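Table S2 (text version). Query chain:
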Amino acid sequence: MHEASVAKAILDTALKFAPKESKKISTINVVTGAMSALSKDSLELYFNELSRGTKAYRATINIEVIPVSKTYIKDIEVEE
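Corresponding structure-token output:
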């Protein structure tokens, strides 16, 4: 169900950075790490509900999955 919060973040960001004079946001390209396990169907469902009444309503969301994740462990320390 984390798709709801991801959809909200995508919507907020798209609306913030879309040119003010634009009439509609038609496509949003999203890149995500494979470990995020986003469901495209769920993301689109939440996005369409959240975007109702905005210029992003019914925008196409393209998701590119990359083999790494934005969240990763760079280093760990252990006690022996």
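Notes on Table S2: The chain has one domain: 3-66. The first helix runs from residue 3 to 17.
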